[in-house]
Fold:
Amino acid sequence: MPSPPSVLILFAHPALEKSRVNAVLIEAVRGLPGVTFRDLYEEYPDFDIRVEQEQSLLLEHDIIVLQHPFYWYSSPAILKEYQDLVLQHGWAYGNGGEALTGKTVLQVITTGGRETAYQREGINRFTIRELLVPFEQTARLCGMDYLPPFVAHGSLAMTPEAALKHADDYRRVVEALRDDAVNRDPIREHDRINSEAAMAFVGVRVGG
Ligand SMILES: Cc1cc2nc3c(=O)[nH]c(=O)nc-3n(C[C@H](O)[C@H](O)[C@H](O)COP(=O)(O)O)c2cc1C
Structure:
């Protein structure tokens, strides 16, 4: 029997000691069997990323999770540095660059703004899916399957109970991806994988 897909969580938060939501989310997934958790700021306080080691880790895992707070409509800086250095031409994309083909990317973000703020009429004018397009297209260019993101909105005013509910959903999604128990096609129609409607397809083994 083939081993189930393994999950690599690349976590980026520059001030974890002040975190209210990500700190709760990571507790739900760190230490799960088949899951490698990597705190990029802890690993690289000087941004001195060990490219070959990171590439090896990517090769060893099938599901790549990018978890971070949403900063200036993007990620904290180390994740950009990671992309710039690790996703090399001829390795991740371009001529002969097929190292990541067939892998899956799930982005897991917390936003200060509420869901209503991420609409045409809202203060941010664009949807989260639109604002995350650079991440989605980067994954696609590398031949990876980018799933709808896991989004915990309204992080600044979030109650501890709501954060724990998100953490529980996060654990379910990670376990289901690890166990190849996500019915992907119907989920693609949803803005976020953790909406109530999309979660109905998480934990459902495709083909019985
Ligand atoms: C530098 C910085 C930039 C931010 N930019 C955004 C943003 O563009 N959109 C948004 O909704 N929230 C933004 N926020 C709020 C963060 O997303 C929020 O602090 C985070 O989700 C809280 O998660 P934590 O409790 O794990 O720290 C920003 C916060 C900081 C510190």
User: Anything to note?
Assistant: The first helix runs from residue 22 to 29. The radius of gyration is 16 Å.
